[in-house]
Amino acid sequence: MSTSATATRTSPGRPRAGRASLRAGAALKWIYVGVGFVLALIPFIWMVSGSFRSEADLYQNPASLFPTSITLHGYIGVWQQLPFLRLLLNSFVFAGVTTALTVLFDSMCAYALARLRFVGRNVCFVLVIATLMVPFQVTLIPVFIQLFHLGWLNTYEGLIIPRATSAFGIFLFRQFFMSIPADLDEAARIDGAGHWRIYWRVIMPLAKPAIATVAILNFTNLWNDLLWPLVITSSNDMLTLPAGLTLFGGQHVTDHAVLLAGATISLVPIAIGFFFAQKYFIAGVATSGLK
Amino acid sequence: MTTSTTDRVSPRVRGGARPPGGPTPVPSARRRRIRWQPAWLFMAPSLLILGVFVLYPILRTLYYSFFDWSVGAAVQPFVGFGNYIKLFQDPSFWNALGVTLEFTVVSVVLLIVLGLLTALALQSEGLASRITRSVFFFPTIVSLATIGLVWKFLLDPDIGLVGGVTKALGLAPVAWLQSAQLALPTLIFVSVWRSVGFAMILFVAALQGVPGERYEAGRLDGAGRFSLFWYITLPGIRPTMLFATMMLTIQSLQVFDLVYVMTGGGPLYRTDTLVNLIYRDGFVNFETGYAAAISWVLFALIMLISLLQLRIFRYNDVD
Question: Quick check: B219 contacting A, CB < 8 Å?
């Protein structure tokens, strides 16, 4: 709309009717954007405000967006009714360690695919890309059984290792590495650097934007993941935040403020990350790795 | 690590000491060895994980689907295509397939249309437009579990804001998620609400990539707003249109989290999607072989629809 809007504005001698419809179009556009803006924000505002409301307040004033009086019992309830610290720790360990490993493994793999010449390189690349097409649910049952035989159910290894690489990350790193001039490796090689040193000292320091994008997208996906931790863990000690909140939400907790407080806390790391690193989130989506 | 030691053996010539036009001492056989061995070492962790936890399990799922397999059972009888035959006679499978397709078609169409409209409205690089884009995009990065929980409460007829406002307007509050007619459209709404920012970001990038000269040329030819959009914008963003449609379709066919959190597949299985069915049969009822068969049908469905979309968009190119 706006492209064509500027288009009409710049062309002289436009008939009047066009200008009127233009104004109507602009008004319509801002109404649409305004409604969308409010609609996008209200659930989050309501979530945060609800986490400070009492059950009675929620039942008496459901039409109100804000608390009549602020109470912290939701947050206290989170500590008392859920193994909250444990869930938080599990989420950080699962998302953090897996992301670190993914960045390392993906970039190593991509280094070989982008910088080294070897028999079978194209086959490897095609295989990696093919795994992008596989719905995660198709592999879920055998992976569950493999982990059962390995004794890895309800363990960090089981949660982390199967997820410690992502075809999308390999793809993104490979594209980025191919844009780094080959002269740099040559120079380093003449200086006697081995492949590991070239990868670690030359390529990786130049790849910070790719590292940031892969790390942020992976962390977000893992932090948010529900099905994987739900299937791999059954003991309450090993659940992650989304899985814990969902399970407890269905079973033990009947107080809405407690669950809203839990949801608010689980959103904080992602919201902070988004505030400071938006461009990496958006860069990642433009190449699309977000679920 | 091993790689660097391999290379450290080769003669090291430091920057300044290098004679101009000096000899290249590495013999070709040796160079070959150095070149391809490290490659496999570099790829080993990723390939191992992808092989063990993605590629092998796909085949394993296919294998299980031919057995009356369940975790821990003493006998796992071979049933051939039994699970697939059972599947095609199972009303709960047809129900889940129908629910999944309805969810997918409606949400993808809405997401493409609304995503493109939003992108057209917010494509400029002004501050207001950039901030608004961030706000629209934010729900995409929030977990579906959180979004499901919040919307479930928002839509609750007793405590939710939506119910509260309905009552304040003097209308009877609606039990959105408890109604057999409204539950699925409500899930679609929440899913669209969450992902519209994702589609928008894709389309903004695409719109900014359409060369300005094309619009100039179109305008010189006297094209109106609508023809500019139809003949220049739309063809210019076709690759993104295909990409967005495929991504969103694949995601929607796999919808699980929202269902699990908001309705659990009810009421009366009206929101029971394929992945919810796989989860229930595989991990609640432990009918593993049967769930594996459904997984393969889902896999085949995703492949088929992706190929179909590729085809449709390519035929358009011929026109």
Answer: yes
Question: Which chain B residues are closer than 8 Å to A11 by Cβ?
Answer: 219
- Are residues B55 and A131, on separate chains, in Cβ contact within 8 Å? yes
Q: Does B73 touch chain A (CB under 8 A)?
A: no
What is the length of chain B? 319
Domain-by-domain residue ranges, chain A?
2-74, 81-287
| Angle subtended at Cα A105 by Cα A100 and Cα A111, rounded to the nearest 5 degrees | 125
Which of B10, B64, B298 lies closest to A142 in CB terms? B64
C-alpha distances (whole Å) from B184 to each of A227, B145, B188, B265 are: 20, 17, 6, 9
- The domain spans of chain B are 85-318
CA A154 – CA B228 distance, rounded (Å): 57
* CA of A69 vs chain B CAs: smallest distance (Å): 16
Task: Count CA within 13 A, CB hemisphere, residue A49.
Answer: 20
Kindly identify which residue of chain B lies nearest to residue A133, measuring between CA atoms: B303
CATH number of A81-287: 1.10.3720.10
Query: Would you call B40 and A112 a contact, using CB atoms and an 8 Å cutoff?
Result: yes
Strand partners, B78: B67
Disruptive mutation site among A103, A285, A288 for chain B (greatest number of B CBs within 10 Å): A285
Domain B85-318, architecture per CATH: Orthogonal Bundle (1.10)
Question: What's this model's pTM, rounded to 2 decimal places?
Answer: 0.82
pLDDT tens string, chain A, 291 residues long: the values are 444 444 444 444 445 556 777 788 788 888 999 999 999 999 999 999 988 988 888 888 887 888 888 888 888 888 888 888 899 899 999 999 999 999 999 999 999 999 888 888 888 888 888 787 777 778 888 898 899 999 999 999 999 999 999 988 998 899 889 888 888 888 888 888 888 999 999 999 999 888 998 998 899 989 988 889 988 988 888 889 888 888 877 666 678 888 889 889 889 988 998 888 888 888 777 665 444
Please provide the DSSP assignment of B251-307 as one string. HHHT--HHHHHHTTT-STTTT--HHHHHHIIIIIS--HHHHHHHHHHHHHHHHHHHH
Tokens 């909140």 found at: A245
CA distances, A57 to each of A255, B107, B159, B280 (Å): 12, 35, 9, 37
Nearest to B123 among A2, A32, A267 (CB): A2
Cβ–Cβ under 8 Å, residues A109 and A225: no
